[in-house]
Specification:
heterodimer; A: alpha+beta; Peroxisomal Thiolase, Chain A, domain 1; ten-stranded mixed sheet; 15 helices; 12 strands; globular; B: alpha/beta; Rossmann fold; 2 domains; seven-stranded parallel sheet; 16 helices; binds nicotinamide-adenine-dinucleotide
Chain lengths: 429, 468
């Protein structure tokens, strides 16, 4: 039996404003935020009581109580409780990978509609118990008498109580993601000035998007926040230049300004078959054409932790017979300004393209005015798993408003992975 | 072996004393050992825009498995990629902790004096980022090969730059200018290999000209470039000659050592240890050219490499010099070489692609008190090389010369201490060279892929102040 593939429509999205860590959403859990994002989507698209094909979402930082997070979230929304759901996790690629999973089922005709999303909190991050304390607690659990328990408890030392706070750290290298990128950036000769420039533009573009009302049907206020808390409309290269480096040592070029801050937030995007959209009179913003995921060996191999998108994109382009220049907009997730710039430099570099990608010529440069036209993570913040949903919805809407076009989405992720995708739109014809 | 002062100055206590007294601390120069990589560190490859040699340089570096960095500039990256180099990126604005063993700059794109600022732009950010015993090579177009007076002037200006940088770079670093004629790009290999390696430890501030050779340069095994070649070395029983024999043998050649009959025992000891053979003769005798040619023909079917090393000094001021001293020095150092060359050539004993390498001297360039005879002979050697080059080129034979400066041998050990110390220190390396340094330069000229080198006189003098 062969199945005709169906086109997958992006109908819209909803997210809550992103908050800086330990701030507006300090008291909110993953489930609270994902529920808010999802319920906003339900309201916007009148999905109350609807049974959707599925909801797929995830969080990078999870408590043990976040078991079955997405399904539990669905049960808290006004969706039909008969809507199945599951969690996925692919670090910062979670949100976009969730969208690809839902899209693939729609394309295959297994479901007609679904929601993909993601959420993360760095304020309510789970605190792991250190190894020595864990062993002691096991002993305590196994102790038979109160006396035995007291004896075990007497073994608790102050040092054991210090929680193992999850750091943004690669388990195999012990280096933070920022330190990894500092090395990659240095390798590509990325300067402080170009990073700060990219950062200022991100803030200006996101501020302009809010100003012109672009975000009105993409963002629903939450816990008093109406806009992304990290957004600095008056950000400038001059102001950014004053910040001290935080990665790469004293000579480093990466600052708290040109790196994304730890943030809290959630996002969701609604995908469906064309028929499903048509039945409900919902306009198709764009089609999710395809996706690609790549991984690099950043441990034993000789590649930067966040360089996987540089491999994923050309693979995807070749599959579709497209060139890097065949896009109207580029959404390259700004984990760090340096990551975006390293990726662009790699695509422009004959050596990288020949030696690493096995191509006879470089992919070439992109028109920088088409990059992250409504701002990206440097301005909005980056609650890890929520970023994919934010980008897919905003890019689809941008294409739709332009009357059509093609968007490239690229998201780098911990573990040396990268998830990329293509959206296409015929516009509001 | 470094001289005593150099060893002492580099010992822990010596470092303390030289530091406090402000005495020079000559760097112990790195020298090549068999099996060593050509370049032991990162090479930065740059070019003035519009240059024509970056692709050739990249190809050579790729062949040497060098670790290369370039600026992130389209032309350089394409050159690297086309050469199959997985070149790293270097941005002088964010240098990080980058350190370079070698800097190679293609200056052929400079066609006007105002563009000489490209030298500053490339070298300024990295000149203090070089490791000890670093190598700097600037590639240019010889003024006579340029298209305009302005280009000629700018290309000639490179010489002043490399010679000055040679005096600044310190820590055993060397700086050279290599003029590559248009169309001779494929002949860059052997020269870059030599100048970037520890083989050129005592060569600095030199100008090398590469022209189109007679035949496409063969691909050589960089560890045994002279494999299968037969090499005649005159004056091989001791000193520089023995070192030449040993380096040529190390590089794969069968060495036929030659010296005067009284030194037969020493000569045999040298050549047999190298698996070579020997021939005793006084090169000045009437029948020497023929008997040498005959021996090479009969025992080896010809000769691929001829090194005219035998030479003597007979110092006296001209006023006190007897005609015999004049005659003897000129005959051994110059005339006999001419006669031998002529015989080898006319008898057909020189194999196709043969290499003749002569030993001139800094005294032939700078002149020296008490050495009118010697200086005349050694300048004559340089003249012979330049004049014979086009003649020999017709037979695919090349002729070049090395001009040693102060080399630590029995000959220089006999020089009075004050003069000896001056000779040793008055150069960019603050030390004398070793016989092996002269030998390495000779092996470079002798290499099968050195066909683009013809008529060059290169000094092995640590960029001596004399005659500079
Ligand atoms: N040592 C230096 O600092 C220095 C500097 C510049 C040039 N040179 C040149 O380098 C070459 C070698 O110098 P060295 O220091 O090893 O000298 P050396 O005296 O140690 O060796 C010269 C060799 O040539 C041989 N020789 C001399 N006359 C000969 C003849 N008529 N026939 C055959 N063999 C003969 C000698 O027997 C001796 O073995 C010479 O041409 C010399 O002028 C040496």
């Amino acid at each position: 039996m062969t199945t005709e593939l169906r086109k997958v429509a992006v109908l819209g999205g909803n997210r809550i404003p992103f908050a800086r860590s330990n701030s507006a959403y300090a008291a909110a859990s993953n489930q609270d935020m994902l529920t808010a994002a999802l319920d906003g989507l339900v309201s916007r698209f009148a999905l109350e009581g609807e049974r959707l094909g599925e909801v797929v979402a995830g969080a990078v930082l999870k408590h043990s109580r976040d078991f079955n997070l997405t399904r539990e979230t669905v049960m808290s929304t006004r969706l039909d409780a008969a809507t199945p759901a599951y969690d996925i996790q692919q670090a910062c690629g979670t949100g976009l990978q969730a969208a690809l999973l839902v899209a693939n089922k729609i394309a295959l005709g297994q479901i007609d509609c679904g929601v993909a999303g993601g959420v993360d909190t760095t304020s309510d991050a789970p605190l792991a118990v250190g190894d020595d304390l864990r062993k002691l607690l096991i002993k305590l659990n196994n102790a038979r008498s109160t006396g035995d328990r007291l004896k075990v408890l007497a073994g608790v030392r102050p040092g054991m109580i210090v929680p193992a706070i999850p750091r943004n750290e690669e388990p195999r290298t012990g280096l933070s993601m920022g330190e990894h990128q500092a090395r990659t950036g240095a390798r590509w000769g990325v300067t402080r000035a170009e990073q700060d420039e990219l950062t200022a533009r991100s803030h200006h573009n996101l501020a302009a998007a809010y100003e012109r009302g672009f975000q009105a049907d993409l963002v629903t206020p939450f816990l008093g926040l109406e806009r992304d808390q990290n957004l600095r409309p008056d950000s400038s290269v001059e102001k950014l230049a004053k910040l001290k480096p935080v990665f790469g040592g004293p000579q480093g070029t990466m600052t708290a300004g040109n790196s994304t801050p730890l943030s809290d937030g959630a996002a969701a995007v609604l995908l469906a078959s064309e028929e499903w959209a048509q039945e409900r009179g919902l306009p198709v913003l764009a089609h999710l054409v395809t996706g690609e995921t790549a991984a690099v060996d950043y441990v034993g191999g000789d590649e930067g932790l966040l360089m996987a998108p540089a491999y994923a994109v050309p693979r995807m382009l070749d599959r579709l017979g497209l060139t890097l220049q065949d896009f109207d907009i580029y959404e390259i997730h700004e984990a760090f300004a340096s990551q975006v710039l390293s990726t662009l430099k790699a695509w422009e570099d004959a050596v990288f393209c020949q030696e690493r990608l096995g191509r006879s010529a470089p992919l070439g440069a992109i028109d920088r005015s088409r990059l992250n036209v409504n701002g990206s993570s440097l301005a909005a913040g980056h609650p890890f798993a929520a970023t994919g949903g934010r980008i897919v919805a905003a890019a689809a809407k941008e294409l739709y408003e332009r009357g059509g076009g093609r968007a490239l989405i690229s998201i780098c992720a911990a573990g040396g992975q990268g998830v990329v995708a293509i959206l296409e739109s015929n516009g509001s014809n | 072996m470094p001289d005593t002062y150099t060893s002492l100055a580099n010992s822990p206590i010596g470092k303390l004393i030289t530091g406090q007294l402000g005495l020079p601390r000559p760097t112990i120069l790195e020298r090549y050992s068999p099996g060593d990589a050509t370049i032991s560190g990162q090479v930065l490859l740059g070019a003035a825009p519009g240059g024509r040699l970056a692709p050739a340089a990249a190809t050579v570096l790729a062949g040497l498995s060098a670790n290369v960095s370039t600026a992130l500039r389209g032309d350089l990256r394409k050159a690297a990629a086309d050469a199959g180099l997985d070149a790293a990126v270097f941005n002088g604005e964010v240098p990080g902790d980058a350190r370079f063993k070698a800097l190679v700059f293609d200056a052929t794109g400079i066609t006007d004096s105002t563009q000489l600022r490209e030298l500053h732009a490339f070298f300024h950010p990295v000149v203090r980022r070089t490791q000890s015993c670093s190598r700097v090579v600037v590639l240019g177009t010889a003024p006579e090969d340029t298209g305009s007076p302005r280009e000629a002037a700018a290309q000639r200006a490179l010489e002043g730059f490399t010679r000055s940088l040679g005096k600044e770079i310190g820590q055993g670093g060397t700086v050279q200018l290599v003029y590559v004629a248009p169309g001779a790009e494929a002949f860059l290999g052997s020269t870059l290999r030599f100048l970037l390696s520890a083989r050129s430890a005592y060569v600095s501030g030199q100008v090398v000209r590469i022209n189109q050779g007679a035949a496409t340069p063969p691909v050589v095994d960089v560890h045994r470039p002279l494999e299968g070649k037969v090499a005649l070395v005159t004056g091989a029983s001791r000193g520089i000659g023995a070192a030449i024999a040993s380096v040529l043998a190390r590089d794969g050649a069968h060495v036929v050592g030659l010296d005067i009959p009284p030194l037969a025992e020493d000569l045999e000891a040298v050549t047999s240890a190298l698996g070579g053979s020997f021939l005793t003769a006084d090169i000045t005798t009437d029948d020497a050219p023929q008997s040498i040619a005959l021996h090479l023909q009969e025992a080896h079917g010809g000769v691929d490499i001829v090194v005219h090393n035998a030479g003597i000094t007979q110092d006296r001021t001209l006023a006190r010099m007897k005609p015999e001293r004049w005659e003897r020095v000129l005959d051994i150092n110059l005339s006999s070489e001419e006669r031998i060359n002529d015989e080898l050539l006319s008898s057909g004993v020189l194999n196709t692609g043969a290499r003749i390498v002569c030993v001139s001297s800094i005294a032939g360039i700078a002149g020296n008190n008490g050495q009118t005879n010697y200086g005349t002979s050694k300048a004559g050697v340089a003249g012979m090389v330049v004049a014979m080059a086009p003649v020999l080129a017709k037979q695919q034979v090349t002729i070049n010369a090395v001009a040693p400066g102060f080399i630590e041998t029995q000959m220089t050990a006999a020089v009075p201490i004050a003069i000896r110390e001056a000779g040793r220190r008055m150069n960019s390396m603050s030390q004398g060279g070793l016989p092996v340094d002269v030998a390495e330069a000779i092996a470079w000229f002798a290499a099968p892929d050195s066909g683009g080198l013809n008529g060059n006189v290169v000094r092995v003098c640590g960029q001596s102040l004399l005659g500079a």
